[in-house]
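Quick one, T. Sequence first:
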Amino acid sequence: MRNDSTGMGCPGFLDAQASDADAIGIGGVQGGWTVWDWSRGGSARQGALIVFVVSVPQESVIGAPRSQPRYWGIHINTGSPMSTEYTPPKVWTWNKANGGRFANINRPIAGPTHDKELPVGKHPLQLYSLGTPNGQKVTIMLEELLALGKTGAEYDAWLIRIGEGDQFGSGFVAANPNSKIPALVDRSGPLNGSGGPIRVFESGAILIYLAEKFGAFLPKDGAARAECLSWLFWQMGSAPYLGGGFGHFYAYAPTKIEYAIDRFTMETKRQLDVLDRRLAEAKYLAGDDYTIADIAVWPWYGGLAKGLLYGAGEFLAVQEYKNVNRWADAIGARPAVKRGRIVNRLQGDPAAQLRERHDASDFELRTQDKLEAVKSAAS
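Structure tokens:
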């Protein structure tokens, strides 16, 4: 919001004619005054609605008590009619300026943008990820497997900075042609059809792959297995409405659009109610046992229920979903979950950021607070 306290020189009056100035009552202002302007529908040169909020600290505007601000509005007509409705063109074209917060990484084409090989560590499993809810699914799963004594689940977790476009490097695209985190490369064998390591992408596919490889967190029996997989794929189908729908329009979109926020809020609350009803009748999503369904759903909906996503806890009244909160608390208390959720994390408390994980001791020795303390001491 722009502020100009120099009277007629305020930016809001660019392109305004003398008659326009008279129409909004500039002649009625006496003494010191401050003008803010707000434009909607384009810049003034395209035809804009500009609302002026004028406060008078010393003397009153004619006909108004001195303690109240006065509001005027003017549409500056420069030849373009003002419209608040978007009409799609016959053929869409890519305009980077319309991408909002993620304009630098969103694009309508696939494939690499630059050559960059992926690093390879010492362990059989190489994970390339970021500590988002989708990334947390896999690191939680790997930590749970290690907690069971599955030593073959040792892994190197490499940080992929999606805000900087790491996912468009040639090595990452080879691991995941969809250029999304997480991506897993299994170098333990057997080899793929081309004689190389096995790649697995999409978080749900990675969870199933690891569950089957190590024989854990996925029931073998028909009914229990079906229930587990149903809830796993419920998460895959539902989370885009939460993240790409509600989260985007509530927290990230450059413009707050009531219709979009209402639409996806309604769907997000419906999903929370689906979970709440299921968890009223079962300890975990698939029944009595903790499974990959819980591991997949918890980072998204457990985080949402605890007010950790999008700053939207109060807005969504998440405390109303008692069963979801009970389940979220129980899973969040698991030691493997506490470890897994901080791997490849870039935000929040430095003590809860383990940006890369290459050894179990890293949780004690290499969280961001400790690395920063070492760096500070060295300087």
